[in-house]
Fold each of these.
Amino acid sequence: MADLDLHRLGWSAIFQQQLTLEDLEHSQPARVAGVTRTAIKLFSQQGEHLISLGGRWFQMDAEFRPCVGDWVLIDLDATVIERVLDRKSLIKRLRPTKDSEVQLIAANLDTMFLVSSCNDDFNLSRAERYLALAYETDIHVVVVLTKADLVDDPEEYAAQMRTLRSGLDVELVNALDSTTLDGVRAWCGPGQTVGLLGSSGVGKSTLVNSLMGTQVQLTKTIREEDGKGRHTTTDRSLHMLPEGGFLLDSPGMRELQIADAQSGVAEMFDDIENLIRMCRFSDCGHNTEPGCAVIKALENGQLDERRLSNYFKLQREERYNSETIAQRHARARNFGKMVRQHKPKKPRV
Ligand SMILES: Nc1nc2c(ncn2[C@@H]2O[C@H](COP(=O)(O)OP(=O)(O)OP(=O)(O)O)[C@@H](O)[C@H]2O)c(=O)[nH]1
Ligand SMILES: [Mg+2]
Ligand SMILES: [Zn+2]
């Protein structure tokens, strides 16, 4: 690969400001395109590199390790990763299997394509989850409804999604037909990083292939389609578009437990939070209290039950998970302190 322009890779002032004079002399920035168990694939100005991840990285919490989309500093010979630069945005979740461990999904996205199909996967409450995570970290979200070719009235699905938030961008596509992708393509381009997130089988990789104009990702074949629960894509990866900019493909997520997203949840449900502020009593439980603005909105159809109960559910989940993560961090800090205190002292000479 010939010299790449850093700005085409998504470099901007936010990252430049983090470099010291020494960094400029002895290292170079690179963008993380893929992470395996032991190695990291990167793009730098010189092209593509594969650098193995040394042991010290595994002593750190997952949040401090490089993630797809990250900007890192590497040495001039491209053999070691020196440090991860502060992120401008981060999508993370609580890992579904491990005890309260955070899993990083994507760093430094500009736009999230929340991909959902018009048929079996369509779910408004799940969409609200993704939206809250994106709002938390100031990522622009576009809901991309795939398989519009397989339903009778795709507009009806788009209209339902648009009720989630005023001004929400919703695109209807047939991911297999690139002539339907102009609306989606408008969000991609030089310097832009777009992450495709959503459940398995909705067409994320199909969309990536159609936008790239070539088969870069495996997609589920028709034969495999009855094998429910199979994830075709297993790793997160960045793909450079011919016109510049990146698409980040990811494995489908069955569960997206949210954490550290208090303001994202508040923004997603700002209509409900405004109603709560109008309740007569500041400690209103929104059950039978007189002067409850929430009950009134339910009664007059301004607010629906599903949205309200999803708001309470996400709020509870967010609080619980954030506390668990904070406790985990505190335990790790205490452990670090204990190890330092027990280090043998240097003998006096
Ligand atoms: N008719 C139609 N089929 C689609 C569309 N989008 C995806 N498909 C089909 O749906 C199946 C699943 O697509 P994938 O792209 O593999 O789905 P994915 O979201 O990447 O799934 P994971 O990698 O498991 O997360 C494939 O057989 C695609 O051909 C669409 O818009 N219309
Ligand atoms: Mg896929
Ligand atoms: Zn109330």
Amino acid sequence: MVNKMSLSIYQAKRVFVTGHTGFKGSWLCSMLALLGAQTAGFSLAPNTEPSHFSLLGNNSNSTIADIANSTSLLIAIRDFQSEIVFHLAAQPLVRESYNNPLNTYQTNVIGTLNLLEAIRQCDSVKSVVIITTDKVYENKEWLYPYRENDQLGGYDMYSSSKACAEILTHSYQRSFFNIEQYKEKHQVLIASARAGNVIGGGDWSKDRLIPDIIKATIKEDKTIIRNPLAIRPWQHVLDCLQGYLILGKALLEEKKEFAEAWNFAPYSFESKTVQEVATISMEIWPSIKIEIEQNDSHNHEAGLLKLDNSKAISRLQWTPKWDTRQAIQETITWYKKFYLEGIVITENQIGQYMNL
Ligand SMILES: NC(=O)c1ccc[n+]([C@@H]2O[C@H](COP(=O)([O-])OP(=O)(O)OC[C@H]3O[C@@H](n4cnc5c(N)ncnc54)[C@H](O)[C@@H]3O)[C@@H](O)[C@H]2O)c1
């Protein structure tokens, strides 16, 4: 069970977060602040209005720059004397990757390369968690959930760019940060984390189911649902970030056998179709109205995707805490509080989640 005590290793740690202005990064920085960590972030400026990062108002130690700029990145990591890095900066949208493949690969692959190179040049960094995605697996439309040692691949440019980031990370793990030479030739442990479809308050990105539903409902409009039968592992952002923090803790504790890839996902029986998630949302907030898109002319997206979470459960003692229904409930509560009462309940939800 995660709580402030079990993650006390972060107290006063110098934690560098790329992608801190985004949805998951801003939640992560809030969790870290509550754990007593010092954080610095590196990202582009928020590109949504509203933005969770801006609402939280924690702009100290924030570098706004492109991760393709290796010099800015190195200076930011080095100047902060970072001890652990969580790398979340990415172009994270499948449809955008079809529109802009070059930017997708530049950010997701070259950005990860720049980060790994910066770490080679920065003695203070001891632990690194590279965030990729459930979409890194070669999707065979299997009923079975994917395990960490399944084949990597990617039909669309987002998925393949993240699989490239995994391969790149693995290459650096073996070539420069080999665990056989840990403490003899280097001091760095690197792991990667693959999470499912993450939901939670404060996400205003386009092409994401719950944010699209909320935006339409606030305008008293209906939501057009693409890919209603696509099955995904939906999880609350706090379950996902809890996994990243537990993994980072194992690396900070110098457990070199944890420097590998990890899935963080709900139990596979929890996986739900897009339509099921929309239906649960309507049950929770009856004002929500849904229309299923009949035209299937959109770009290819995976139909069936489940992740096997048993490795993280058995070896990291990580467990998903909120099932999919509760994740949807907590997410809708967050948005209703924001839109109907003008209150941001991020810290309250973290407190509730971490039994503070
Ligand atoms: N949200 C999900 O459902 C989900 C699921 C699996 C994995 N992920 C991964 O989690 C991470 C965070 O995703 P998110 O949902 O918070 O996305 P987001 O779009 O909300 O945030 C992305 C962050 O990356 C930064 N960024 C983008 N391009 C950059 C660049 N060129 N230089 C510097 N910073 C740049 C943005 O400024 C932002 O801070 C990503 O790596 C994403 O692939 C997300």
